[in-house]
Amino acid sequence: MEVDGHTGDADFDHGRRNMRQAVLSSVLLREVMESSGSEREDSDPDDPDVEEPTRKRGQHVQESTRPKKRARAANGVSSEKEKGGAKRKRQLPAVAENPDVDEDLIEVLKHKGKVVRQAAAKWVERYEANPDVALEELLKALFQACGVKSDLNTLTWTEVDIDDAVRELVDIAKQDGLEDYLGSKHRDFRNFKDNLVTFWDSLVRECQDGALFDQKLMDKSMDYIIALSCTPPRIFRRVATLLGCQLVTSLVGVAKRLGESRETAQRQLNAEKKKRKDGPRVESLNKTLSETHEKITTVEEMMRKIFTGLFMHRYRDVDADIRMACITAIGSWISAYPSLFLQDLYLKYIGWTLNDKNAAVRRSSVVALQELYAVDDNIPSLGLFTERFSARMIELADDIDVNVAVSAIGLLKQLLRHQLLEDDELGPLYEFLIDESPQIRHAVGDLVYDHLIAPASGGSKSENLQSQLERLLQILREFSGDPILCDYVIDALWDKCKAMKDWKCMTTMLLEDRQSDELTDRDATNLVRVLSASVKKAVNEKIVPSSDHRKVTLTKAQKDLIEVSQKDMTVAMIKSLSKLLRKYLADQAKVAALVEIICHMKLELYSLQRKEQSFAAALQLIKDAFVKHGDNQTLKACVKSLAFAASQSHADLQDSAQTILKQTVDDLSSKLKSAIGQAGETEDDYSLTVNLRRMYQMQLTIQVTNESLFADMFGLLDDFSNLEDEVVRLIFLNMYLHITWSLSAVDPHNPDESAVASLIASRSRLTEHLNAFMESALDSWEQGIPRNALTCTICLILSDVWSLFSEAKLAPTKLRALGFCPSEDVLELFWRLCEHRLAYTDDAEEEVTEGPYAELLDEKDMIMTAAAKLVAHDMVSKEFLGPKILSHYAQHGKIISETVKQLLTRVKQNMSVDDLSDFYLNAMKLAYRRHMDEVSGSDEDLTQSPSFAACKELAGRLSSSFLGMARAKYRPSIVEIVKGGINYAFRGAPKQLSFLQGGVIQFALKLPATDIRDILADIEPRVRGVDTDQDPSGWRPYFTFVDLLREKSAKHEAPAGVKENAARSRRRIAKKGVRGKKLFEAQETSSGEDEIEEVPSESDNDHEEVEEEEDDDTPLYIVRQHVKPSRSHVNPRPNLTRPPALDATREVSSPSADNIEVEEHDIDAGEASPAVPMFDVAATEEQLPSKRANWGQSHSMGEQRPRMNASWRPAPLNLVQDDYFSKASSKDNSPSNSSDVARTKRIRSKLHNVPISPEEPESAGGFSEF
Fold first, then answer.
1. CA 1191, CA 780: separation in Å to the nearest integer?
2. Distance CA 1187, CA 624 (A)
3. How far apart are CA 1142 and CA 399, in angstroms?
4. What is the rounded CA–CA span in Å between residue 666 and residue 660?
5. Is the pLDDT score of 902 beyond 50?
6. Three-class SS of residue 1175?
7. Beta bridge partners of residue 148, listed in sequence order
8. Percentage helix, strand, coil for the chain under 3-state DSSP, each rounded to 5
9. Separation of alpha carbons 1253 and 551, rounded Å
């Protein structure tokens, strides 16, 4: 049927208006019932007068839709539902108009989220009736959404010049403040952002066939949104950016619908031309095609206008949320409308923001790229982009933020799928298999499996799994030097690699007699590690350390899955465990991992399958391994497995296990007794040493009751004085464990007197021997012979014995007879021995990563902890030992400093003011004495020595505990410390006067002016009549001390009028007509109390800030004030050394564009979010970047380090030097308190044989925001 084109359009418009009216009327009944605030008076649902109009409206809805369908058919356009648009539900008839729709738009946006779409449709009707009035209403709603609270009826916003209008809005914001609806946490505004976006999206959809192309509505709206996005108030920019991005998103939907209509019209035209060359139908279709094309062109011009006027400025805004919104939006635009946006002109912005200093923005860029690379059709257009930015994508896998790194690894996985990366580019990425973060480790594991392991699959299932294991072993060869690193790799790959869950395949490969070139001994060792780790993973046991110690609650399905996995593993191991143990019994590198497998099996399955003999055979082999080997790891695994089998098995299995365990203990006791009897007969004490080590590992798990054996150990110490330190250590450890087991066997409520007496005798004998060897060790240290291992063992055992038998702890119990307290002489020897070990540094210690001496790495920390716990729990006199420990606060690294800090916090809680001053002062005196002993006889400047620097650092750390409110609380303590320090410094003056500079001054500057004047009055008479010119260098610390106190006192004594005038002048300069921010509008405060002064701009250099927050002029404080704080590290990652390609600290730059230099003005924020700065002073002029893609390097990239090789950069601008994107370190290089992280760092350092790089300071030239 042929219809005239004009008639069809008229019918179409008429039908659309009827349809809109019907839709508005159809939802009223439901909305009225749901809305709590809209009560209707005199309404009865059963009233027949209401039902009849409802039926008529329903008929009107059906009739009003028909012209619209006819009009679409007449225009040759398909009536398919729009793709990507909101799917409209068929509405039921309503009884009356919804009053919520007629409210002010801002009220609907704030409180009536359910009728936002209807409000948009209603506004479109008002616009069609009176465009000027409706547009005025829309603009006012826009300004109110931006937070403007004042009356907006002073101007006709549709007629006034936009620049003047925006300038007026900024002035209103300065005078009356803004409401931050977007950032508010108020309950009423929780959905404001969604409502605002929905309203503008609905408005565009409602106008897409009419007002959208009238060159008034969209032009005026876009001009205002773009203008608001360039204003100083941050709220303006946030709202404008949100709406601008949403307009482009909605216009993309319109363009896609129009594109579908154009394609449909083109198909119909082609079909019609085949039938006839000319005619009304062909003419109508040609006209429709031309109009649709013009509309698409207009819509695309609108999108370009917003992109150029808003996006190109705001993607570099100082607000990270604005930047992230821009990047998220452009990613969705490119994905949804690639015909326009999928080109380098737009892609480059995502590439540039990969260097953003904010982690959320970097991640949004990566996520946007993931969506693009997920579509195969996009890949050809992404070739040049990938070439330019692939290096940065690889670097992001090492990002400081874990979420960014994980997302970047997922992006690299997509690049590999499309073969856009070379294998040699991913070399550094494989090292993240041993990363401390489990998220990164598993992400790289998925990538490695898909790229390296899975491609090896082929053939039958068994061949497939075996080839996977062979590829896995090739990877493990790179880490086979350390079993811990292998565990990290296995943990990263275990979830995806099915071969690691095939027990039969792994055991078959281990049991086969294969050629050496197919499965070498190193590969067999790694495969055993894979088997052992897979067994642990099968029962949900962690194989690598984790910083997350929260208890994980498993669901029933997860528990059932673990049980099934454990059952399958046990069935497979029952058949092969004994064979594996028999084959590798003599192999120390493999036997420990195989022995531990039995601890994870369901032992009852041995009985169910009638395999009791296999169970006994496996335990007998474990016993043989215990006897054959002497290393701690194997011995520990054997004892653990035997004890587990003896306690967790049942019936006949338990009897068999207990019998084998008893035989093991008896045989060990017999061998050890024999070795003790043969001591001294041969020069080699190997038999004695290894059996003592076996007994020590046995006693760590079970109690050995053989009193004669332990008596022989004491006799060995009595008879021989030239035993090796390792033998002495093991004897002490065994005796200590024996005494501990004996103490646990005593009933605390009804103790046996004979057991108590025997325990006292054993303890006394042990302490006597410990004291004797402590004196021997001290003599060796003083002769320059270090005895590290023995020293550490003696100190730890003494600390534990004093704690277990503490007189203060046991006094209230029936075991008070066991309590005792060491004398001060013994404590003095104990601390001297501790100090010798703390002062000793051996480079070899840092090279040890694993093995029997790995525990020596933490010897210093263990010794300090052993001494600190005695003081913290009042086991010994804190006045005697406490200052000695505190004097080492700043000498031995961060870990020991943290230990001392915790001790100090504990001690301060229960210490009086006088005791605290003596505690601090004595600690500083001890540190100063060590300094004087070290520099005695030296002619150099004593204040330049490292020991004097340690004294100053100690005083600085101690004085820093008196900041804030603690300064007033502990003021008497500070005064006593200063006075006591002065008296100490003047003993034999001027010999010790440097103590004033090294310890006292930091505390003196914490005092108020009155106390400082008293101190000056006390110290100045001390030098009267003294000729200080005889030794000017000796008296210099005194004069420095006095000058600093006088300067501090003079600062406090400034005339009140001068200070008030300075403050008044400062406020006058700072305010410049801008009112202070009222944090809470509803509260009335007194004169200017809540005003926040604006920070003066850089041009105001003629005055300085005079006000004092808290006078803290100590040297440490002054240093802190001048050092820019480093980036805060939220989820610490291990400081692992990278290859040179990823070793340097990243410096990131951005394209030069307009840069809003922020200077936060003070605006009334109402109850919104007072903590967030809202007002930024923009640059005096704005300049847009070039629209064309420029591949030259910008001037800001000149400061890049060589590692940044990406050359795709925009043309530089001459307006402002861009410093916005600051450096972003690729890794957190700060020292971590986690022992797991520290161990991983040492392992990686050893692996690459390169030192761990120190942390590079963050650039001080980055963009700062007030």
1. 70
2. 78
3. 11
4. 10
5. yes
6. strand
7. 178
8. 65, 0, 35
9. 35
- Closest to 915 measured CA to CA, from 967, 879, 969: 879
CA atoms within 13 A on the CB side of 499: 27
Amino acid at the residue 374? A
Q: Rounded distance, CA 1196 to CA 853, Å? A: 51
User: Residue 808 in 3-state DSSP?
Assistant: helix
b/e code 867-883 from CB counts within 10 Å (16+ = b): bbbbbbeebbebeebbb
Nearest to 325 by CA among 368, 284, 289: 368
Cα separation of 529 and 1244, whole Å? Answer: 19
Would the pLDDT of 1136 be above 50? no
The owner of tokens 């779409």 is: 117
Q: What are phi and psi of 941, to 5 degrees?
A: -65, 115
Q: Say how far apart CA 1131 and CA 405 lie, in whole Å.
A: 12
1147 within 8 A of 1205, measured Cβ to Cβ:
no
d(CA 765, CA 745) in angstroms, rounded, equals 19
Structure tokens given for 1158? 């922020």
The answer, yes or no, to whether the previous bond of 751 is cis (omega within 30 of 0) is no
CA dist., res. 370 & res. 1237, Å (int): 31
Burial degree of 81 (CB within 10 A; 0-12, 13-18, 19+): exposed
* Distance in angstroms (rounded) separating the CA atoms of residues 1230 and 1135: 7
**pLDDT tens-digit readout, 33-47:** 444 443 333 433 333
Tell me what pLDDT residue 1129 has.
36
**Strand runs (DSSP E) across 350-483, as ranges?**
none
- Do residues 21 and 65 touch, judged by C-beta distance below 8 A? no
The region that residue 1228 occupies, defined by phi over 0 for left and psi between -120 and 50 for alpha, beta otherwise, is beta
d(Cα 1200, Cα 904) in Å, to the nearest integer? 45
**What's the pLDDT score for residue 1249?**
36
Find out whether 1219 and 357 touch, Cβ atoms under 8 Å.
no
> What confidence tier does 1162 reach under pLDDT thresholds 50, 70, 90?
very low
- Token pair 């679409």 is found at 72
Q: Which two tokens stand for residue 335?
A: 């994905």
Give the number of other CB atoms < 10 A from CB of residue 608: 10
Q: Cα separation of 743 and 760, whole Å?
A: 10
Cβ–Cβ under 8 Å, residues 1152 and 1195: yes
Long-range interactions of 541-550: CB distance < 8 A, separation 24+: 541/600, 543/487, 543/490, 543/491, 544/438, 544/484, 544/487, 544/488, 544/491, 545/1235, 545/1236, 545/1239, 546/438, 546/1236, 547/436, 547/1234, 547/1236, 547/1237
| Residue 1072 reports pLDDT greater than 80 | no
In this structure, what are the phi and psi dihedrals at residue 1012, rounded to the nearest 5 degrees?
A: -65, -40
User: Rounded to the nearest 10 degrees, how much is the dihedral formed by the CA atoms of 1018, 1022, 1025, 1028?
Assistant: -120
Across the range 283-312, mean pLDDT stands at 91
Sign of the Cα pseudo-torsion (828, 833, 838, 839, in order): positive
Nearest to 1223 by CA among 454, 355, 468, 554: 355
Which of helix, strand or coil describes residue 339?
A: helix
Q: How far apart are CA 29 and CA 98, in angstroms?
A: 8
d(Cα 333, Cα 559) in Å, to the nearest integer?
45
445 by DSSP, 3-state: which?
A: helix
What CA–CA distance (Å, rounded) separates 327 from 314?
10
User: What token pair was written down for 529?
Assistant: 């590690």
**In Å, what is the CA distance from 744 to each residue of 438, 731, 880, 984?**
40, 20, 31, 49
Please tell me whether residue 79 adopts helix, strand or coil conformation.
coil
Give this prediction's pTM. 0.68
Q: What are the Cα distances from residue 1061, in Å, to 311, 434, 1096, 1111?
A: 46, 62, 17, 20
Tokens representing 414 are: 């997509």
- Tokens 């080590």 sit at which residue? 693
One-letter amino acid at 38 equals S
Structure tokens at 297: 């062109």
Q: What is the CA radius of gyration of the chain?
A: 40
Query: Cβ-count burial of 500 within 10 angstroms (0-12 exposed, 13-18 middle, 19+ buried)?
Result: buried
